[in-house]
Design goal:
single chain, alpha/beta, Arginase, Chain A, 2 domains, eight-stranded parallel beta sheet, 13% strand, binds N-(4-aminobutyl)acetamide, binds zinc ion
């Protein structure tokens, strides 16, 4: 109830947009079929997802709206297409690349924009939290006066400009995860620092469509817009989930947080998923749950996904469902079996980080490698006739490629259970389930907590706290609730108890994230049952194992937020995704310095793991504000944006980088340069 009311998800679709198709033979355009929308919408209905969304009607965009990103000569020309003969349509089409016209496409193109603007309106007015528009024709290849790549008008570019004009939005982030470069979007905002455009795309050293020099990583924007265009070219096919996640952890997310958008638009093309005949990538549809989730913590959750490409009907429908189900705040599937990005992906990631380090504080520390445009490098490599190392693993042929259907994502009947201390519960949101456990007996407590000084259990409420923790974990274990929050008299004792109980009855992998200076009362062993990430300001004793990640950050100053986020995005998340816990335990000690905004961010981001199974432990007396923020984040409410970040403290960054280097041999998602270091291979 809570979730559907407070964080509604809009779904915008109209069958009318299926009513145009290719009327002649053109091999370049055969994949762009009406069924793309039909199967996507049918899958959403079949899974009961469409019914959970707020259905909004489409509308036609006005001339004025279209002209936000197109010139009037072009608009006037397209206006004539409904009245053209087949022959005239073919002739008209020929002046553009890889696109086709149809008597009804102008109408559909106006609806595609109108759908996108309806979505922006509903999100910006707060009618819903987020949403998706299922549209045809797509938009990101459309240029001011040209159709291109199945696109007539630039839906996403117009949506961004419309949001700025009508909703006073200052900064818009456009994430283009379609497998093609949205060059039309790049051209539109090249000189505009108020719109940050990120695109990854199949490139293969410029040999893949649209074969543009300016799709390479060294196109960073122009003039005042320098730094606000981020291209991540994929120079091989066969990119997988680890490649995509690394791009998010080490390029997009740090920059996006620093930029601090007020609205996130996603050019949501699913030709970057497995089975697609255009992309030839191998990331399974579940990856879109994670990409979506990771973006939902930005801009106060204001996210509009607008369909672009996606040509394998099975993969497309599954990917659309993964995206919408995540927008609806259902728990993401566990990110199992991740490894490390491939050599070619690492090279691209390293290059894009290097060219952007002069624009973004979060990238300042990256190696100042001199990088040549990848187009040049390719000719050298291929001139040799020697294929790069990994090319054997990345297969060109996709016939008969199959993958398991994504698992059903079931949300437990209740989202969040809270065990508040008796009498003090003003801060508990109504939709939380309240839980009171049976206090442990002293004998039970001692049995469970052999590592803890029994004196600590004599404290007021200690046994009740432990009973509450046990009760919450049991409810998570029984799938009665997704996550829980316990306010405890002693966080250290609570952590020890929770880890012990979770390992014995819930999962064989617990991720413990602790903010505080006390020693973590947990044995970190090489069997990997527990992985501890500790944020603190004084150097903890370094337990030299891959399962202990101390992050020593400075406590005060305006730059502490940036340092903390840097650690979360580039160290904690990559390790956590590689570890793939069955439970996340999040604990704030009584000396935690992390404020409620960052804490809510952390809580929100970590819910992409362990199917959302998170138990949070907070110190009694830590304050209603942070308790309420935590509970709301656990409930799946949008978390407040952090705000544009200052430069992180260099010492903080050094500490994170030190740990990153130490742990790289063990956690492949930490890598940002090739094992041999790609630049050394050139020179
Ligand atoms: C929206 C989109 C792809 C055009 C490919 C033409 N367009 N070869 O995915
Ligand atoms: Zn595409």
């Amino acid at each position: 109830m809570h979730q559907e009311m407070k964080s509604g998800t809009a779904l915008i679709y109209d069958e009318e947009m299926t009513r145009y198709k290719l009327l002649w033979v053109d091999p370049a355009c055969t994949v762009e079929v009406p069924e793309r929308l039909i199967v996507s919408h049918a899958a959403l209905q079949k899974q009961g997802l469409a019914q959970r969304c707020v259905t909004l009607p489409v509308r036609e965009a006005s001339d004025e709206e279209i002209l936000l990103a197109q010139v009037s000569e072009y608009l006037e020309a397209v206006k004539k297409t409904p009245f053209m003969s087949l022959e005239d349509l073919m002739t008209f089409t020929q002046q553009y690349g890889d696109v086709y016209f149809h008597p009804n496409i102008y109408h559909c193109a106006k609806l595609a924009i109108g759908a996108s603007l309806q979505l922006v309106d509903s999100v910006m007015t707060g009618q819903v939290r987020n949403g998706m528009a299922l549209v045809r024709p797509p938009g990101h290849h459309s240029q001011r006066s040209a159709a291109n790549g199945f696109c007539v008008f630039n839906n996403v570019a117009i949506a961004a400009l419309y949001a700025q004009k009508h909703h006073n939005v200052k900064r818009v982030l456009i994430v283009d995860w379609d497998v093609h470069h949205g060059q039309g979007v790049q051209y539109c905002f090249e000189e505009d620092p108020s719109v940050l455009y990120f695109s990854w795309h199949r490139y293969e050293h410029q040999s893949f469509w649209p074969n543009l020099r300016e799709s390479d990583y060294d196109s960073v924007g122009k003039g005042r817009g320098a730094g606000f265009n981020i291209n991540l070219p994929w120079n091989k096919v066969g990119m997988d989930r680890s490649d995509y996640l690394s791009a998010f952890f080490h390029v997009l997310l740090p920059v996006a947080y620093e930029f601090s958008p007020e609205l996130v638009l996603v050019s949501a093309g699913f030709d970057s998923a497995i089975g697609d005949p255009e992309g030839l990538m191998i990331a399974t549809p579940d990856i879109f749950a994670h990409l979506t989730h990771l973006l939902m913590s930005l801009a106060g959750g204001k996210l509009c996904a607008i369909l672009e490409g996606g040509y394998n009907l099975t993969s497309l429908a599954q990917s659309v469902c993964q995206t919408v189900q995540t927008l609806l705040a259902d728990p993401a599937p566990r990110p199992s079996g991740l490894s490390h990005p491939c050599k070619s992906a690492l090279e691209s990631i390293q290059c894009v980080r290097a060219v952007h380090r002069q624009y973004w504080n979060c990238l300042k520390h990256t190696e100042d490698t001199t990088v040549e445009p990848s187009t040049k490098r390719c000719r050298q490599e291929e001139g040799d006739g020697v294929l790069p190392e990994e090319s054997g693993q990345k297969k060109e042929e996709t016939q008969e490629i199959t993958w398991p259907e994504p698992t059903t994502r079931l949300a437990p009947p209740a989202r969040t259970a809270v065990a508040p201390p008796a009498g003090v519960e003003d801060w508990v949101p109504d939709s939380c389930l309240r839980v009171k456990g049976t206090p442990l007996t002293p004998a039970e407590a001692e049995e469970r907590l052999r590592a803890v000084d029994p004196k600590e259990l004599e404290e007021d409420g200690a046994l009740q706290s432990l009973g509450n923790i046990t009760a919450l974990l049991d409810k998570i274990s029984n799938k009665e609730v997704q996550n829980g929050l316990a306010v405890v008299s002693d966080v250290s004792v609570g952590m020890a108890c929770a880890v012990q109980h979770a390992v014995s009855s819930l999962t064989d992998r617990v991720l413990l994230v602790f903010v505080g200076h006390d020693e973590v009362p947990v044995q970190v062993t090489e069997d990997g049952k527990v992985l501890v990430v500790q944020f603190c300001s004084k150097e903890p004793e370094d337990r030299k194992t891959k399962y202990h990640v101390p992050v020593c950050l400075k406590k005060q100053g305006g730059s502490s937020e940036a340092g903390f986020l840097h650690a979360v995005l580039t160290l904690l998340l990559p390790v956590a995704y590689g570890y793939d816990p069955g439970l996340v335990l999040l604990a704030a000690g009584n000396d935690s310095w992390v404020g409620e905004v960052l804490w809510a961010q952390l809580t929100s981001l970590l819910q992409s793991l362990a199917q959302g199974h998170t138990l949070t432990l907070m110190q009694l007396g830590c304050g209603d504000k942070i308790l309420r923020a935590t509970a709301c984040s656990l409930l799946g409410d949008p978390v407040p944006a952090v705000g544009p970040l200052e430069a992180p403290d260099p010492q903080d960054v050094q500490e994170v980088e030190r740990q990153r280097r130490r742990l790289q041999p063990h956690w492949g998602l930490l890598w940002t340069v090739g094992p041999a270091e790609c630049s050394s291979a050139d020179g």
